[in-house]
Specification:
single chain, 11 helices, mainly alpha, oxidoreductase activity, about 0% strand
Length: about 350
């Protein structure tokens, strides 16, 4: 994250901090001396408050700071400035990734026939966006301190590829990261479905029975934070190269959109794609995994996606919807007791 912080400081935050928290120009130094002429002080040399010295975050890529980097009373290495900046990056950059990739998925991939499904909610997309807009800044408050610890050198993140446990690790860190986080998220997610927790934290995400890509980040903030913890814990336990770290965090956000896009192309017994995750939204207590079906299979919570989901002419037909509707009503009664969702008006649907 120090590489991302350096880029944002250079191109955005240095001028902002220099403007709103400018370095105070010192006047005559308190211990200034006087010349032989009566009461004519010698000019004390100008000493800026900002004594920060630039050191590139990476030997492979750097962003040379401009003059504004030295013009704030909060230098770049001030922990308060780093915490505030990391919070803003986590919040605003997270929103940017969310809206860009959710919108791309919505425009080019998402099946708009979903709007006619009997379990699609009234004003659902705007509700999904509102939930995300509410959750992300709160999630950023809890996430920024973890990024701060990482930036200040408490993690096992490394820059030079030679610093890896072996050259092989520079390649294997990707499957290691995915396997570790998939395992952890499975148990975190399954724990969020415990009756004592579900209604308080995880139910807001299950409001979307037929999710759109905009539901991808529409969580209760503590729910979203809990499911994100494995990604942040990993570099404190295991080595992770800086560029791999940035790539994986962007990938995770895109993957979260992908599994909510309703396009069931991954008819694969191993990959936990959109079809598997749709089964989770439809039937609640199955398919908790993030990337693979491995832990669901071992934990007895795997539910194979229905065959009709992979057939364009069947996945949105009346018979499929009727069966889903009946099964969903049973699951809602079992898990939630009553259904407080506000569905679209009960009117003739455009169905295949």
């Amino acid at each position: 994250m120090d590489l991302v912080l350096e880029a944002f400081d250079t191109f955005l935050f240095d001028p902002l901090y220099a403007t709103f928290l400018p370095a105070k120009t010192p006047g005559l130094a308190p211990n200034g001396t006087y010349s032989s002429f009566k009461e004519v002080p010698t000019a004390a040399p100008y000493t800026a408050q900002n004594t920060w010295t630039y050191e590139p975050a990476s030997q492979y890529l750097s962003f040379e700071p401009g003059k504004y980097a030295y013009m704030s009373q909060w230098p770049r290495d001030d922990w308060r400035r780093q915490l505030v900046t990391l919070f803003l990056i986590t919040w605003i950059f997270g929103l940017l990734i969310y809206y860009v990739f959710a919108t791309l998925s919505y425009v080019f991939i998402f099946d708009k026939a979903t709007f006619s499904h009997p379990k699609y909610l009234k004003n659902q997309i705007s509700l999904e966006m509102r939930q995300t807009n509410t959750a992300l800044p709160i999630m950023a408050v809890f996430t920024a301190p973890l990024f701060l610890l990482e930036v200040r050198g408490y993690s096992k993140i490394y820059d030079n590829f030679d610093e890896a446990p072996g050259m092989w690790y520079n390649y294997m860190q990707f499957p290691f990261f995915l396997m570790f986080t998939d395992f952890c998220i499975y148990w975190v997610h399954r724990g969020l479905h415990h009756p004592l927790i579900y209604k308080h934290l995880h139910k807001p995400h299950h409001k979307w029975i037929m999710p759109t890509p905009y539901a991808s980040h529409a969580f209760h903030p503590l729910d979203g934070y809990a499911q994100g913890l494995p990604y942040h814990i990993y570099p404190f336990l295991f080595p992770l190269q800086k560029f791999a770290y940035v790539f994986l965090f962007i990938f995770i956000n895109i993957w979260t959109v992908i599994i909510h896009d309703g396009e069931y192309v991954a008819e694969n017994p191993i990959i936990n794609g959109a079809a598997c995750h749709t089964m989770h939204h439809l039937y609640f207590n199955f398919n908790y995994g993030q990337f693979t079906t491995l832990w669901d299979r071992l934990g007895g919570s795997y539910k194979k996606p229905a065959d009709e989901l992979f057939q364009k002419e069947l996945k949105m037909c009346q018979a499929t919807w009727k069966k889903q509707n009946e099964d969903i009503d049973k699951m809602i009664s079992e898990v939630e007791g009553s259904d407080d969702r506000n569905y679209m008006p009960d009117e003739p649907k455009k169905i295949r």
